[in-house]
Amino acid sequence: MKKEIEKIKLLFESLPYIRKFSGKTVVIKYGGNAMVETELKKSFARDVVLMKSVGLNPVVVHGGGPQIGSMLERLGKKSEFVEGIRVTDDETMDVVEMVLVGGVNKEIVGLINHYGGNAVGLAGKDGGLIKASPMKKRGKKMGSAGIIDSVDPSVIKLLDSSDFIPVIAPVGAGAGGRSLNINADTVAGRVAASLGAEKLILLTDVEGVLDKKKKLLSTLTLTQAKRVISSGVAKGGMIPKLKCCIEAVTDGVGAAHIIDGRVEHAVLLEVFTDKGIGTAIGLKK
Predict the structure, then answer these.
(1) For the whole prediction, is pTM greater than 0.70?
(2) What is the pLDDT of residues 165-179, one digit of tens each?
(3) Which residues fall within 8 angstroms of residue 177, CB to CB, at 6 or more apart?
(4) Contacts of 204 by beta carbon, 8 Å cutoff, 6+ apart
(5) How far apart are CA 204 and CA 50, in angstroms?
(6) What CATH number labels 2-281?
């Protein structure tokens, strides 16, 4: 009976947040272990379906780096990175598009639909969603690695209004319809800004942003987030994630969250509970 009572308490705790966020858009960058472990994949799909069912508009942007790397390895092709960005020659781009658009995207759509949602898979090339240009790093040609020029969210808004859940692969359209591989965090942030989203949530494989003593920083203002980067507290892959969050909030997103995707139902815990999990950036009380 105690377990049932706790469930009821949690429901009452969630009600104010359900009311607050009803009709609002939440963009979720889906990646890391949450995309690999079977139970976490199921948990994520159920979270997204429940959010849509109680009136929110979830928009999913997914990565797929490990899956791309695995396929390239099977084909005998070595992965090359510059500052964390994959060098994407023509052959690699074919693999990227096949894995992200034809594989990962369809798996996510299938899972969400299996648990009662109405998900629709998109690439950034669909409906003029993402226009992009080839990237250069330190003067090195990055092939079909891309940077975003513009985002037109019309197709997302149409799907949201028709009760569908958009699931977006981070492949944009370059000149002449050329496919360009874009960092999924960047896509999520720019899509969130274009939609005026209430929240941007980045799923990661760490607890959140940690201080020098490895203690979780549960909230950060924009100024504090910038200081975490400049002081060297943030390291490695956390730096671009923080920059993505800062840019998104600066461009009008209500708040950005970096949360631990290894926790079951991480998205619901962040959106619908008092304490939340992970690190909130730019949260307005």
Answers:
(1) yes
(2) 999 999 999 999 999
(3) 125
(4) 31, 32, 237, 241, 258, 259, 260, 261
(5) 21
(6) 3.40.1160.10
